[in-house]
Amino acid sequence: MVDVDVVIAGGGPAGCAVAAALADLGLSVLLVDAGVDRHKQLAGELLHPPGVRDLRALGFGDVVAAWPAQPVRGFAVRFQAPAHTLILPYGSGITGLSLEHAALTVPLQESVARRPGVTLLSRARVTAVDRNDARGVRLRFSSQGAEHAIDARLLVAADGRASPVRRMLGIAEHHQRLSTMLGVTVDSACLPHPEHGHQFVGGPVHALAYAIQPGVARVMVDLPLGSSASMLKARPELLLALPSHLKAEVQRALEQQPAPRMASNDDWLAETVWTGSAVLVGDAAACCHPLTASGMASCFHDARALQEALHRHPGHIARALEHYANERRPAQRTRVALASALYSAFAGQDDGMWALRMGLRRYWERSPRGARASMALLSSEEPRMRVMAREYLRVVGHAFIAMLSLHGQGGRLRSAAPLLRSAGPPLRDAVASAVEQVGSWLHRRIRRPVYRLARAGWASPRRAFASNR
User: Quick one: pLDDT at residue 464?
Assistant: First the structure.
């Protein structure tokens, strides 16, 4: 006997999207939200076109239309030395959106709370998972100073990158702290390319900027671990990659109150996204450096993938969650690998990463098709790892050509050694993941007939067909 079909831990964008997706299947949903002040969070504010499409498909079209959002038509990437900007467009007529985090999240939560079948509990937290198996879950949550117990068919952890529920489920995680992000707001007129996200690369620190409302832009400065706003005030030369007028605006914002928002940039990767009758979505499943701004689109994709899996396998939670894991895995692996490779290329200060930035610039300058392919990967429109491996290899090739043009054909091929050391590991990992994706596709092709025979009573799936989650 279950009290509710689904319990969702976390009422942020991922939790709201999953609540809407599963309520559309006729499931009863309890959405448990901790009630944090979203106006103080330095979190996702730029949404790529795939995320906008997924939100509308989940029935949030009226919310999206009412957002005080700014259009985003692609990224403008400014290289620091020599100073030069390249535009990476989404494509003709395609736009993303950017807006302040609370303005994005609060309307989603208000909208989903009105959906039939959804109950929203604010200022509540899941405190323990007492049982999690094929029959369902039994968990406890605190609300209004009291602890309650509940049984559910499915538990969804949408409680962010440090997910307490993930740990309650005993799911192993890989965690690496990367850097510290500092965020300030400035006059959006200081951004050189309206209706674009801006990447400032090649300087002492990397920065990302985009408009969040009319006249206001957010600038996110990536600082070494343990840094503070006072350190950036004392060392304005760290902002060398920014145009002079934008640099002055950031320095002015650092002197004003309230204090700049700060957040940690981390890699969090769960070893599996499901166990028993519990599943991870959004940042709880995988979180990477935010320079690609793909986190929001990724969590909405997860919501739709989980909806499709449960629709395809009604009454078979384990099979549905396995299907979900298989469907989301290629895009997530590509997204995480791309964020890692780009962050190293954009922020790295060694000779190898300097050469790789030369290759990126040369490739995007000479190949508009390559620029579009890169943007498709960055926006999560293109999920295939083999495409990323191909594009990365092309960038490395352009880096070699650029280095030869500087040093001469017979001159300094030894200077290519730092490039090989820096670009080799990401390329090797991308190729290995591409091979794994192809193998996984073949695996699913073989497995499907077995499941059809099993439903007909002619065969049963073997343990050897268990998928890699």
Answer: 30
Burial class of residue 448 in the structure, from the number of CB atoms within 10 Å of its CB (0-12 exposed, 13-18 middle, 19+ buried): exposed
DSSP assignment letter at 415 = G
Amino acid at 286: A
At residue 144, the pLDDT reads 85
CA distance 66 to 203: 38
Residues 6+ apart with CB under 8 A from 319: 313, 451
Question: For 164, phi and psi rounded to 5 degrees?
Answer: -60, -35
In percent, the amount of the chain with pLDDT more than 70 equals 86
DSSP conformational letter for 435: H
User: Helices 368-378 and 385-407 sit at what angle, rounded to 10 degrees?
Assistant: 130
Separate counts of helices (H) and strands (E) for the chain: 13, 19
Show the CA angle centred on residue 415, arms to residues 411 and 418, nearest 5°. 170
Q: Taking a C-beta distance cutoff of 8 angstroms, is the pair 37, 326 a contact?
A: no
By DSSP bridging, strand 29-32 and strand 84-89 are: unpaired
pTM: 0.88
Please tell me the distance from the alpha carbon of residue 321 to that of residue 310, in angstroms, as a whole number: 8
